[in-house]
Amino acid sequence: MRSFREYVADASQPLRRDAVDILQVNLGYVCNLRCNHCHLEAGPDRQEAMDRAVVDDCLRFVQGAGTIDVDITGGAPEANSHLTYFIAELRRLKAVKRIIVRSNLAILEEAGKEHLPAFFAAHGVDIVSSMPCYMESNVAAQRGAGVYKKNISVLKKLNALGYGTGRTGLKLQLVYNPGGAFLPGPQAELEAAYKENLANDFGIVFDDLLTIANMPIGRFRADLAAKGELAGYQDLLVGSFNARNLANVMCRSQISVDWQGRLFDCDFNQALGVPAVAGTIGGVGAKDLVGLPVKVGDHCFACTAGAGSSCRGSLDKCG
Ligand code: SF4
Ligand code: SF4
């Protein structure tokens, strides 16, 4: 198999970081769920959580970054006790355009977390919610029994707060990822199907659907290997390489920070333990990262396959 580096060289589009438009902050690997596609292998048994000192380092980075979006993820970011402090402090900073929380929704039904949707709304936080299907059986297969009903309950509460309704400016985006060793279908078609089914069955509305391809790393990789499907999935990703996506892969404009403050080109390189630079966010500014080469590997084929994939969905919006 030819490597991702060779494909990039053939396309004459070396991957280097442009200006940092997005800081993706991973607050840790603790999660109430243990999904079978999780590239970070997050779960209730994990202990890693960002402490207050690293949160403050992230705030200093943002302050010095010019205008920037902050995308907060995990694990379940709601499991970190510094989340509300972090959001409240971010909201004071003029540099911050958009604050996003990536939520699995189910955690917002847990004791002690019920206040968070209203807190998010009051602080103008957009919500990106993983919801691998509009059908209960598919969600249960990836995320466990009972998760779907909690997701529906939380989506109704978010709609009641104005999320996804178009009336308040509070964005609600859902995320689809495939339930097996295949690429996502066209984003626009899936979005239409989600919207029709969730509206008809529950009266739920949302802004957009983002499709994300599964990375052959972490728990998803182990699952594929156990089923004898790993080589076939990698062949699919390589065979679907689309050079047009190289111009838009998210590592060109985003940097990811882990719970210890280490910096990575993306959440996937974080899962693989391949840092973008030495040191931590406390000693690095956004301008220091501009122009640096991205640390690519063969997992990157998941970002360039077909219509392309990123934390912001398909790269080819027609795909
Ligand atoms: S995919 Fe998301 S919700 Fe599922 S275990 Fe991983 S971090 Fe938690
Ligand atoms: S996996 Fe990360 S480094 Fe590789 S192309 Fe995707 S975003 Fe860039």
Description:
The protein has a single domain (19-220, 249-289), classed as TIM Barrel (Alpha-Beta Barrel), CATH 3.20.20.70. Helices cover 34% and strands 13% of the residues. The protein has 12 helices and 8 strands. The chain has helices at 4-11, 52-63, 83-91, 116-122, 136-143, 147-160, 187-202, 218-227, 230-239, 267-272, 286-289, 301-304; strands spanning 22-26, 68-73, 96-103, 125-130, 172-176, 208-211, 254-257, 263-264. An 8-stranded mixed β-sheet has the order 6-5-4-3-2-1-7-8. Strand 3 (96-103), helix 4 and strand 4 form a beta-alpha-beta unit. The model has no long low-confidence stretch (mean pLDDT 95). Bound molecules: iron/sulfur cluster (2 copies). Residues 249-251, 265-266, 268-269, 294, 296, 299-300, 303 line the site of one iron/sulfur cluster.
Provide the β-strand percentage band. 5-15%
Largest sheet: 8 strands, mixed
- Counting DSSP H or I runs of 4 or more residues, the number of helices is 12
Summarize model confidence as the mean pLDDT: 95
Strand and helix map with partners:
Layout: H1 4-11, E1 22-26, H2 52-63, E2 68-73, H3 83-91, E3 96-103, H4 116-122, E4 125-130, H5 136-143, H6 147-160, E5 172-176, H7 187-202, E6 208-211, H8 218-227, H9 230-239, E7 254-257, E8 263-264, H10 267-272, H11 286-289, H12 301-304
Parallel strand pairs: 1-2, 1-7, 2-3, 3-4, 4-5, 5-6
Antiparallel strand pairs: 7-8
The structure holds iron/sulfur cluster (2 copies).
One iron/sulfur cluster (SF4) binds next to helix 10.
